[in-house]
Write a structure and sequence with these properties.
Layout lengths: L7 H22 L7 H13 L3 E5 L5 H11 L4 E5 L6 H5 E7 L5 E7 L6 E5 L6 H13 L1 E4 L2 E4 L5 E6 L12 H4 L4 E5 L4 H11 L13 H11 L6 H12 L10 H6 E3 L3 H17 L7 H6 L1 H5 L4 E2 L1 H5 L4 H11 L4
Parallel strand pairs: 1-8, 1-9, 2-5, 5-8
Antiparallel strand pairs: 3-4, 6-7, 10-11
Helix pairs in contact: 1-8, 2-11, 9-11
Amino acid sequence: MSIDTLTDDEEQAIVEHLRDSRGKIDTELSKTIIGQKDVVQQLLISLLAGGHCLITGAPGLAKTLLVRSVAQIFDLKFQRIQFTPDLMPSDITGTEILEQREDGRRELEFVRGPVFANVILADEINRTPPKTQAALLEAMQEHQVTVAGERYVLDEPFFVLATQNPIEMEGTYPLPEAQLDRFMFNVLIDYLPHNEELDVVLQTTSSRPEPIEKLFSGEDIIKFQEVVRRVPIARDVADYAVRLVESTRPGRETSNSFVNEWVSWGAGLRAAQTLVLGGKARALLEGRAHVTLDDIRALAAPTLRHRVLLNYKAEAEGVSVEDCVATLLKSIKAA
């Protein structure tokens, strides 16, 4: 099924199916995950839009549990890869081994690696060398891997969530800016409020959690991704998204003074595409058939967090990317 062959009735049925199931998704996730509503929404948006996520958070904040729970709801094959300094590209993509047949002949046979799954949790991706990072990033961008000159197509849907530990950065291999740009969102997971943390402690130290019910299939995800692209967006809303991204770039005639003062490099075209496509997915999750300015504003921080590079002056003054984005949202007005 392609976007062009999807009928209006089929599209409407898919939209209603997603809207009616939105509450069920929250109900199933609440069996294992408490709080983190913004994080859950951003992961779902990325999944429905066909993007990938970078998750930044301290250890012990249930990142793996969250990703596994989302995979279970959508009945997707889940694989977790622990990135270490000695991890090789073949440990991710797979390798060829020499097999002996019944007739005595020996042939090379490709053994698939853990990347051949629907949902990949790349744990602490910045702890492995660039060569291994590049192997995963090829899979993210091309939805394929290349081993010994042979091309192997990955199963759809394909969704990568890579985590970074912001505390221990010594001896790591930070992703270059061009590779960071391949992630749709940089999702920030913070500590829970006191009451929610108390609920987690009580829930996880009493009975075992209920099993999560499967609500969708991989085929449903592919259909959702097709419908997301058909969600209409007004030209002035798309124009706002483009102007917001343009405003992050220093050294232009229209650049704000604080951008010239704090920012060394602004976001590129992919950021505007992310805001529009993410806005479409957010609209569907909210039960709407059109994108609003609030959709764009709500996704500004996760979209720009890893695409805007601050200079030394900003760091010295304690200015964060979130501060810069918040100031831009106040200064950029709708057309």
